């Protein structure tokens, strides 16, 4: 338990963290990787270059400081981060290293303003927060290992099949190399792929949503090839998977993880809204409902640039044809002449409030969405304007957690 003095000191630093938080976390990562370059094997280098990881950590530190006297309120965020840590292989012995470099970064950025009292208070607070993470993650590691078909660490899987879904997305069907059972998962969860790429100095970790329903003898991931664009380099791992990995090759996976999952206990209508490759967890959820709750009313909405990059369209069409309770609608932001000729889409442009309300039969439903961050910010705003209850709105960030406000 933290003393009231420590709590008061931590809360007094909240305004400072609001201003200098990202600067502190940028310095933290510089120090961490300089002092412990081996940890570069655990981090997504692209997220580091784009600043997403630094911002996510700054937000987490700020939230911890603001709620230091009621840490139970940030438990959902702890669990979400712990899922990612477990899937990456973050261990208890990493936390003292992180704490040492975080305190050093606070001192380095704030200078004399970081008094001994402040640094001591943060050291005590970090110990309490770290213990919370370590405890949650210990249970997650045990559950992943002890589950039927579960395993510890990373397990080799063989690429049984590689299927092109669109001009940019390819699916990989992965079966365990040892031929034994694989653990189940909840629709919406992901696996971490550890890529050891020839010519790359460090291991690259990437988390990919499982894109088919549970209960299969394989895991399926559907990967978008990330091309270079302004401010972002081409995806190293996605290019490797698309160009180099062949059927019969081996890939290393950790057991499924993640807290963005479909509520199978809810019998109300459900609405899935996806943008681009954000359809991957939505397809897993859609397939699970088609198999396990075929009577549940489902509205599937997908936003794509055009038909060339629209993945799994025919699969969804087959489900719609066989299940009258399922309807699907598509918005294309830049449709081709061929798209118009074939009537491939229902709306040109972006999903907006009037159109959404015209295709969604009721707002008393569960809403799940995923896609690029600007898309998710837009959808979150539209759903709130449409009257969806906050407790019915569920979403997943690909990568570090951000804000939709």
Which terms summarize this structure?
405 residues; alpha/beta; Globin-like; Elongation Factor Tu (Ef-tu), domain 3; Rossmann fold; 6-stranded antiparallel beta sheet; 6-stranded parallel beta sheet; 12 strands; 18% strand; oxygen transport; Flavohemoprotein; flavoprotein; FAD-bd_FR_type; EC 1.14.12.17
Question: What does this molecule look like?
Answer:
With 405 residues, the protein is an alpha/beta fold. The protein has 3 domains: 4-146, Globins (Globin-like); 155-253, Translation factors (Elongation Factor Tu (Ef-tu), domain 3, Beta Barrel); 270-396, Rossmann fold. It has helices at residues 4-12, 14-35, 45-50, 52-66, 75-88, 94-110, 116-146, 236-243, 279-292, 313-322, 337-342, 353-359, 373-386; strands at residues 155-164, 169-176, 190-195, 204-209, 219-224, 250-253, 270-275, 298-304, 326-332, 347-348, 366-370, 393-396. The strands form 2 sheets. A 6-stranded antiparallel sheet has the order 4-3-6-1-2-5, with helices on one face. Strand 1 and strand 2 form a beta hairpin. Helix 1 (4-12) crosses helix 7 (116-146). It is globular. Heme b binds at residue 85.
């Amino acid at each position: 338990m933290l003393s009231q003095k420590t709590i008061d000191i931590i809360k007094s630093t909240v305004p400072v963290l609001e201003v200098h938080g990202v600067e502190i976390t940028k310095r933290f990562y510089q120090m961490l990787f300089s002092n412990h370059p081996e940890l570069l094997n655990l981090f997504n280098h692209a997220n580091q270059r784009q600043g997403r990881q630094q911002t996510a950590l700054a937000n987490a530190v700020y939230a911890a400081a603001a709620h230091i006297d009621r840490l139970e309120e940030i438990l959902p965020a702890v669990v979400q981060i712990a899922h990612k840590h477990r899937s990456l292989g973050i261990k208890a012995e990493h936390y003292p290293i992180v704490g040492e470099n975080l305190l050093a970064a606070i001192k380095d950025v704030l200078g004399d303003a970081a008094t001994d009292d402040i640094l001591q208070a943060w050291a005590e607070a970090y110990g309490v927060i770290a213990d919370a993470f370590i405890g949650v993650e210990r249970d997650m590691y045990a559950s992943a290992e002890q589950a039927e078909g579960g395993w510890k660490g990373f397990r080799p899987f063989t690429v049984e099949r590689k299927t092109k879904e669109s001009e940019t997305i390819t699916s990989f069907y992965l079966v365990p190399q040892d031929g034994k059972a694989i653990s189940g998962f909840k629709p919406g969860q992901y696996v971490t792929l550890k890529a050891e790429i020839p010519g790359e100095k460090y291991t690259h970790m990437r988390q990919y949503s499982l894109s088919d329903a549970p209960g299969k003898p394989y895991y399926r991931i559907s990967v978008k090839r990330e091309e270079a664009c302004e401010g972002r380099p081409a995806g190293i791992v996605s290019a490797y998977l698309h160009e180099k990995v062949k059927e019969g090759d081996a890939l290393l996976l950790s057991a499924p993880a993640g807290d963005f999952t479909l509520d199978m206990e809810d019998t109300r209508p459900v609405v899935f809204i996806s943008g681009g490759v954000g359809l991957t967890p939505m397809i897993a959820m859609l397939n699970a409902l088609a198999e396990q709750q075929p009577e549940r009313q489902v509205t599937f909405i997908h936003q794509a640039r055009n038909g060339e990059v629209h993945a799994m369209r025919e699969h969804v069409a087959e489900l719609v044809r066989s299940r009258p309770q399922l309807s699907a609608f598509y918005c294309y932001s830049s449709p081709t002449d061929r798209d118009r000729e074939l009537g491939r889409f229902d709306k040109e442009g972006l999903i907006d409030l009037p159109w959404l309300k015209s295709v969604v039969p009721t707002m008393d439903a569960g809403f799940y969405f995923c896609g690029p961050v600007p898309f998710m910010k837009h959808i979150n705003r539209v759903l709130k304007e449409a009257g969806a209850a906050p407790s019915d709105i569920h979403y997943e960030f690909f990568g570090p957690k951000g804000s939709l406000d």
